[in-house]
Design brief:
By secondary structure, this protein is an alpha+beta fold. It has a domain of 107 residues: Sandwich (Immunoglobulin-like). A 5-stranded mixed β-sheet has the order 2-10-9-4-6, with no helix packed on it. Strands 1-3-7 form a 3-stranded antiparallel β-sheet, with no helix packed on it. A two-stranded antiparallel sheet has the order 5-8. A hairpin with a 2-residue loop joins strand 9 and strand 10.
């Protein structure tokens, strides 16, 4: 009985082969929010010896939430068969409007052989975000510094023209003491 089990086990492992997936096109692609993408995602599926695998089923899976989208079929999963060259190409991704990085899970299978890979892609953020506000704040700061520099230069120039020496120091600002709390009648 043990020999029979061993023989079945041996025959099962003889059928299992290894597949390799290589992302050929699409790694790092940046998509406009909500607009159908014109870029393609192409993978090459090869066997353990590096030969292309024809008619392997390649499934592409988008995340269920966060930066994501749908494929041309309206779903988050799409299946494409490889050609004679071992290539599978997917087009028509429509990203959602959530900016950021997302990963497309890629699974390939042919008979008992399987392989998996990840492809990083991005949805661009709006230009009116925090970076634009920071740039605007930086411009205001530069303008204040420039005006302060002009004022200082004008004061020095005026003092130099009057011949009376440097202008007197400005009066000290009023001092504000610690806050006080009165309870009851004053």
């Amino acid at each position: 009985m043990a020999a029979l089990v061993l023989a079945l086990s041996g025959s099962a492992t003889a059928q299992v082969a290894l597949l390799n997936i290589q992302v050929v096109e699409g790694e790092g692609a940046v998509h406009a929010p909500g607009a159908r993408s014109s870029s393609a995602l192409t993978v090459r599926v090869t066997d353990e010896s590096g030969r292309p695998v024809e008619r392997a089923a390649v499934s592409f899976h988008l995340p269920p939430d966060g930066p994501s989208g749908v494929f041309s079929n309206g779903l988050r999963t799409e299946v494409v068969l490889t050609g004679a060259n071992g290539m599978a190409t997917l087009r028509g991704l429509r990203p959602n409007r959530v900016a950021g990085q997302f990963q497309i899970r890629i699974l390939a299978s042919k008979e008992q052989a399987r392989a998996g890979a990840l492809c990083n892609q991005y949805i661009a953020g709006p230009r009116s975000g925090t970076a634009a506000k920071a740039r605007a704040g930086r411009r205001k700061w530069i303008a204040v510094v420039a005006l302060a520099g002009v004022g200082a230069a004008t004061g020095v120039f005026a003092a130099g023209r009057s011949g009376s020496g440097p202008s007197p120091a400005p009066p000290a600002p009023p001092a504000i003491g610690p806050p006080s709390i009165t309870v009851g009648k004053p």
